[in-house]
Amino acid sequence: MELAELPADLTLIGGGYIAFEFAHLVARCGVAARILHRGVRPLEHFDADLVTHLVTASREAGIEVVLDTAVTGIEREPGGRLRLRAESGGQAVDYSAAMAVHAAGREPNLAALDLDRAGVAHGPAGVTVNEFLQSTSHPDVYAVGDAAASGLPLTPVAAKAAFVAASNLLKGNHTPVAYGVVPTTVFSHPPLAAVGLSEAEATRQGLKFTAKSELTTDWFTARRLREPVSAYKVLVEEGSGQVLGAHLLGPNADEVINLFAVAMHAKLPARELQKLVFAYPTSASDIVYML
Q1: Which of 40, 41, 153, 157 has the lowest tally of Cβ within 10 angstroms?
Q2: Per the structure, how many domains does the chain have?
Q3: How far is Cα 118 from Cα 250, in angstroms, rounded to an integer?
Q4: Looking at the domain assignment, is residue 166 inside a domain?
Q5: Angle at 237 between CA 233 and CA 242, to 5 degrees
Q6: CA distances from 287 to 117, 212, 249 (A)
Q7: What range does the domain containing 235 cover?
Q8: Is the Cβ–Cβ distance between 255 and 262 less than 8 Å?
Q9: Gap between the Cα atoms of 262 and 291, Å rounded
Q10: What angle do CA 53, 59, 62 make, to 5 degrees?
Q11: DSSP type of residue 111
Q12: pLDDT tens across 197-256, in order?
């Protein structure tokens, strides 16, 4: 799409990965971007504190972030613009947009397969599978990716599952799927990344841990790039010193989160991570100060 073809304004329905990524992209191309999210907090699977910082940065970038607002209908107006009907706090509200994009999530496209007639158990998240990615009700059926109720809905997770399912199909069930530690990133500006448990999840599990967090906008890594907001939160288990979760917002968070994933996979205690000397000046060199 050429720049001249972009609409004057764009409304994204939903408050997940796609909504924030596209909003940040088009806003920097001069498009008036708006995010309409039905919940009180967007990006619900990410750390709440870091999401708050990202929402602030988004608004400062000119993106209108509207929360607790559910879109109930869309219709074309005589002039060609779109009218979005919504509800907020029990009140009806309208929004006008040159273009609207559905970014409120997706469901597996399985309706045409008539799985019930074939006796294949399934639900809203896809086909119900066992550890070999084989249907729990029909042994001749395997499913991966968005079609399977297994693992996070991420491209690298689906790719790993595909290799496992193919091997089990060809050689018989011999390899159970093991996703392990899976990092994930929202490619906004700055990017938001996470791996492992959130603070809320660790608390629910009754784990004893220390949560270290800080706004790092004045750290050199952020200052040299004039990054508007930068922050982190790292959870370290008491006793074992294992990193339970890492949450990053700022320059190169999408790359640095992979280093935390490697450390967690190798069960490298935080004290050992602190002993490493990283190349400087890189974003990874900040890890020793986050622990």
Answers
A1: 40
A2: 3
A3: 48
A4: yes
A5: 90
A6: 53, 12, 13
A7: 185-290
A8: no
A9: 15
A10: 145
A11: G
A12: 999 999 999 999 999 999 999 999 999 999 989 999 999 999 999 999 999 999 999 999
